[in-house]
Amino acid sequence: MKLSRRLTLLTMAVVSAVAVVAGPAAAGDRDLRAVTIHDVKPDTALSRLQAEAEKALGVRLPSPSQVTLVDAARELSDEQIAALASGKDADGVKRLGDYKDPTPDTTVDQVARQIGVGDVVLWECVVVYWPPYVIYFCRPLVYRA
Fold first, then answer.
1. Which pLDDT band, with edges at 50, 70 and 90, does 109 fall under?
2. Nearest to 137 by CA among 113, 87, 121, 51
3. In degrees rounded to 5, what are phi and psi of residue 144?
4. DSSP label at 63?
5. Does this model's pTM top 0.85?
6. 17-39 CB burial, b ≥16 within 10 A, e <16
7. Do 137 and 84 meet the contact criterion of CB atoms below 8 Å apart?
8. 3-state class (DSSP) for residue 74
9. Is the peptide bond before 102 cis (omega within 30 degrees of 0)?
10. SS (H, E, C) 17-51
11. Radius of gyration over alpha carbons of the chain, in Å?
């Protein structure tokens, strides 16, 4: 009886440890929610993007964890968003850089300059809510000539 109980407890501990290490990526993207915001100007503050995302999702979002700038030929697919949100590479997407813990008044242009992306006049941003994280993926659409 004691051996059986110990094995049961050991099994439960191993399963719990695997779940903690694997994190949200292994659980799938069932809690991941994303909103694409088109025609974002460089001087747009993240607080405005956050407000638009909250309106579209119908939920109050926590402060953003990071802004990631990406280069992709097309709008990001659900699979690409899930891969990027879980820290993996996504086919057809080049990660240009990350900006950690932005403030609400940070603009998209400030992020681009910090990361070293050229002068962009129009962006597309995907606001991803994967509790408890909020991540912005922005891709340049039009560079200044």
1. very high
2. 87
3. -70, 135
4. P
5. no
6. eeeeeeebeeeebeebbbbebee
7. yes
8. coil
9. no
10. HHHHHHHHHHCCCCCCEEEEEEEECCCCEHHHHHH
11. 19
- For residue 60, pLDDT over 70 is answered with yes
Query: What confidence score (pLDDT) does residue 2 get?
Result: 52
Q: Quick check: 31 and 134 in contact, CB under 8 A?
A: no
Sheet harboring 120-130: ordered strands across?
Answer: 33-40, 120-130, 133-143, 66-72, 93-100
Is a pLDDT exceeding 70 seen at residue 7?
Answer: no
8 A C-beta contact, residue 95 and residue 106: no
User: How far apart (Å, rounded) are the C-alpha atoms in residues 81 and 61?
Assistant: 18
pLDDT band per the 50, 70, 90 thresholds, residue 30: low
Q: Which amino acid is at 132?
A: P
The 3-state DSSP class for residue 56 equals: helix
| Residue 57 pLDDT > 60 | yes
